[in-house]
Amino acid sequence: MISRVADNCFWMSRSLERADTVTRLTDVNQALNLDVALPESEQWRPLLLATSVESELLAKHGRPALADGDKVREFLTWDEDNPCSVATSLRQARENARRVRETISLEMWETVNHTWTWLGTGDTRKLYDRDAPAFYASLRERFLLFHGVTLNTMLHEEPFDFMRLGFALERAAQTARVADIKHHRLGETVSPQETPADAAQWIALLRSCLGIEAFLKRSANVLNGHRVLSFLLFDHSFPHSVAHNVDRARNFLERVRAGSPARIGRRAGSELEQLIRVVKRSDVDRVVASGVHEFLDDVIARVNRVCEAVEADFFSRPAAA
Fold first, then answer.
1. Cα separation of 29 and 69, whole Å?
2. How much is the average pLDDT of 239-266?
């Protein structure tokens, strides 16, 4: 396949996963702020820090906006000057899908296109203003629909493999970012003596990763920081965990390398193996002892290096290479 198609498939999945994560984060955080009396500085700024868009908000709206929940929610959902907003990510995903319209299935294109069209209607904006939880719930359903449509209607060949590679890498980084919100909000408070605010935070993180039910199905799990972090980072059976997704990324990287000369994908493979070793050699006790924020920052940085290597190995070279 030509590199242009691989590039668009890779980025379509990444953009959709990013939009999905920001949707869940914004929705869950809104509910958390209604349930728990947090200081203004801890209500919305941690989401901006975790998604690395605080500077964009400050440049556009100034420092008072950090404590303005409506303004932050608007910025995370609708603002096309925000590179990680739901609207920006969906626009990018739709454009990537349009460019590979002949490669993806009709059902995939219709799902992405309908979601983008729905987002731009006046009725959708009215729904957001009137009932934000219903708006976010509808968005989440559309993202889940896309995943099901993709698995069931697209040929599981190279374009699909690049899509799943991008999806797995993006999800690993996004789960690390979600887990890091706890640090930005309450600092390093992973200890046996946790407060009700801590417990509410852990529940919110699990909900942000669609993991509260799966977490509670583990009979050994009790709601505390060690258990939640271990689940989000190292549970290989949980589809949002870092460990699960770096393993899936390895599988799909091996698939896209299988039909290429040995040298193609070598850098990406090396970077990914280094990331996998870091995750496999860690456990929650080591992470807490050495610093949760530092570990998560390292994971995010390593995922970014893998993505950069994929770009260099597969997309930045002539199709005949």
1. 10
2. 91
Tokens of 220: 């050994």
Distance CA 258, CA 277 (A): 22
| Cβ(128)–Cβ(73) below 8 Å | no
HSE, side-chain direction, 13 A CA sphere, residue 213: 2
Report the chain's terminal Cα–Cα distance, integer Å: 11
Residue type, 59: A
Residue 186 pLDDT grade (very low, low, confident, very high; cuts 50, 70, 90): low
* C-beta separation of 303 from 169 below 8 A: yes
Query: DSSP letters of 34-85?
Result: HHS---HHHHSHHHHHHTT-HHHHHHHH-GGGGG-HHHHHHHHHT-TTSTTS
Closest listed residue to residue 279, CA positions, set 241, 251, 253:
241
pLDDT digits (tens, 9 = 90+) for 261-286: 767 889 999 999 999 999 999 999 99
Q: Is the pLDDT of residue 224 over 90?
A: no
Half-sphere exposure of 198 (CA within 13 A, CB side): 17
Q: What is the DSSP string of 73-89?
A: HHHHHT-TTSTTSHHHH
Report which of 273, 223, 216 is spatially closest to residue 247, judged by C-alpha positions. 273
pLDDT at res. 321: 33
Lookup: tokens for 192:
């046996």
Nearest to 122 by CA among 130, 113, 110, 111: 130
The token pair at 175 is 């789960």
Q: Has residue 215 got a pLDDT over 70?
A: yes
Please enumerate in sequence order all residues whose Cβ is within 8 A of that of 33, keeping only pairs 6 or more positions apart, or say none.
43, 44, 69
Question: What are the tokens at 51?
Answer: 């998604």
Residue 239, SS3 per DSSP: coil
- Minimal CA–CA distance to 25: which of 245, 227, 210, 225? 210
For 106, residues 6+ apart whose C-beta sits below 8 A from its C-beta are 153
What CA–CA distance (Å, rounded) separates 90 from 82?
Answer: 12
